[in-house]
Amino acid sequence: MIRKTRLIRLLVLLIVLIGLSSYLSLFLGVTTIRPLEAIREWSSGDLSKETLVLTTLRLPRLVLGLILGANLAVAGALMQAVTRNPLASPQVFGVNAGASLFVILALLLFPALGTANLVYFAFFGAMIGGLLVFSFASVRGMTSLKLALVGMAIHLLLTSLTKGLILFNDRITNVLYWLSGSISDSGWLEVRLIVPWSIIGLILAFSLAKSLAIFQLGQDVAVGLGQNITRIRMLAAVAVVLLAGVTVAVAGAIGFIGLMVPHIVRRLVGEDYRYVLPVSALCGGLLLTSADVLARFIAYPYESPVGIVTALLGAPFFLYLAKRQTKGVA
Amino acid sequence: MLRKRMTGAFALLVMSCLMLAACAGQAKEETTKKTHAVTHEAGTTNVPDHPKRIVALEFSFVDALDELGIEPVGIAQENKDDVSGLLDKKISFTEVGTRQQPNLEVISSLKPDLIIGDFNRHKGIYKQLQQIEPTIILKSRNATYQENLASFKSIAEAVGQTDQMEQRLKLHDKRLAVAKQKVDPDDQRKIMVGVFRSDSLTAHGETSFDGELLEKLGIDNAITKTVEPTVTITLEQIVKWDPDVIFMAEADPKLLNEWKKNPLWNQITAVKKGEVYEVNRDLWTRYRGLDAAEQIVDEAIQLLYPKKS
């Protein structure tokens, strides 16, 4: 159990880091923005180009990064808690791939559909992807290995379907940039779209935090203690679908945040999900925002999809995790 | 009874196989009469002199062959009317899948004596293509104007039509020189060629096919020092680099309408001055031949200098 003073110290540190990365996200990029000048202009109402870039592009981009990062991290933490499996995450569970597939399908069948409606397809796809993996992996007891294998298989299957659709439809080769995960072209429209769903998802997740602790004791104990396991699982699944689905709908499949962040956070605060979930939300936001700043400088002055940056950071971490796991088993 | 019939059928099968093999062998012999070496992006290939059955996997190669008076037997295309749009006439050929995903079986069934693939799309399947028949890999997609010209020259060398190639290039230079006279040398306007897709904007920078071509005529590109000939850019970057003229090679409304609602959109000089033009997408982003280059130049000049032309 984490001590209160340590928790407070951690929170302060996180908030400082988020502040720093927000500052960089707002003021760094191809346009140089001077904070003081921007504030002065903003209060006088006479906005220059630079200040407009700040208020109409950088600010929504920052908000989006913080919220979507939180969504992905919390979705990952929920999945890892409910499945008691360290490898669970929206990506490994086929949730991201399912959502991507259905968004592409929707674009293909109903080209005139706006982003606001794509969200529902993303939710549905996220659900299908997750259900597929869960049902195959839980036949005769779920193990980490089985989950990883089934998850990867379903992920690859769904991704290959998506790629097939793109290959045979010249018109939607369009979406390749979105597919690799990006928040660079987002504005307030996207923010308005994701905020309600994200709030519902996050509140649902946080309200489950206390019950999640029971999963750590094992399913039998949980049932013995009178917990309604199925109900908690269902609610957690709904939260994951909302959080991951809405993220994919606006930003594409940004991988690795859902996998990495909960691990780091459990290292820091222990296994109590009343702390793990909110701290994961903060760390997820911090990570995505920082990755988004990095994405602007990899090929400066041109931008790279942020999904590539998170994968760049995440892949070595995944390997490290896998190595530690096999050591533990042996 | 049954066994006898089976044996008979089997014998027939073996015989027909042998005959087929013999035929194939003959076909091989015919094509291996005389060859010359052609150096290309993926190595050096011995190409038969004056190949007759050519498969072209990019539109600009089809255009090049057409300029040299050769009709390919197989072409990769996405839409039924791609080739007729490209050449402005109907030719008969076999579709060999899409440019992104050519069908090797169909290519093989055509028994070509030369396959021309694109460096960007087909370098990965070069070995497989080479196993079918002699293959050369040249630059077209995401390549510069000069690289596309070089590909035209390589094709002419491969098919042994260098005289015709030189004549055509002379004509091309002449046409560009005529076009250049219509460009005002004091014109400071910088252009951007943008492909506005549903989720992103791709700009053709100063080293892209159309970008470099227009630069050659003295029409400057606003998107400079790019890592690749084409780059994905954001609204913030357009505002920063502020083009005076925007050519929209594609105008998907999804992202574009969102940008148009942003007050920054109206801060772009091209938008302020009303110099945002939609241009022919196939011509500006897909064809990339000599003919396409000349048409792009014409379209650009008509839009930039409506009174003069």
What report would you give on this structure?
The complex is a heterodimer of chains A (330) and B (309). Helix content of chain A is 77%, strand content 0%. With 330 residues, chain A is an all-alpha fold. Chain A has a single domain (59-325), classed as Orthogonal Bundle (ABC transporter involved in vitamin B12 uptake, BtuC). Chain B is an alpha/beta fold and 309 residues long. Chain B has two domains: 32-168, Rossmann fold (3-Layer(aba) Sandwich); 184-304, Rossmann fold (3-Layer(aba) Sandwich), CATH 3.40.50. Chain B has 14 helices and 13 strands. Chains A and B meet through helix 3 of A and strand 11, helix 10 and helix 11 of B.
Helix and strand pattern of chain A: HHHHHHHHHHHHH
Morphology of chain A: globular
Strand content of chain B: 15-25%
Query: Could you estimate the helical fraction of the residues of chain A in percent?
Result: over 70%
Order of helices and strands of chain B: HEEEHEHEHEHHEHHEEHEEHEHHEHH
Of all chain pairs, the largest interface belongs to: A-B, 30 and 30 residues
Helix-strand category of chain A: mainly alpha
Structural class of chain B: alpha/beta
Strand composition percent of chain A:
under 5%
- Fourth CATH level, the homologous superfamily of chain A: ABC transporter involved in vitamin B12 uptake, BtuC
Low-confidence blocks of residues of chain B: 25-31
Helix content range of the residues of chain B, please? 40-55%
Q: What is the number of beta strands of chain B?
A: 13
CATH topology of chain A: ABC transporter involved in vitamin B12 uptake, BtuC
By DSSP (H or I, 4+ residues per run), the number of helices of chain B equals 14
Report the biggest beta sheet of chain B as strand number plus sense, adding barrel if it closes.
6 strands, mixed
N-to-C CA distance of chain B: 84 Å
Mean pLDDT of chain A: 86
Mean pLDDT over all positions of chain B: 88
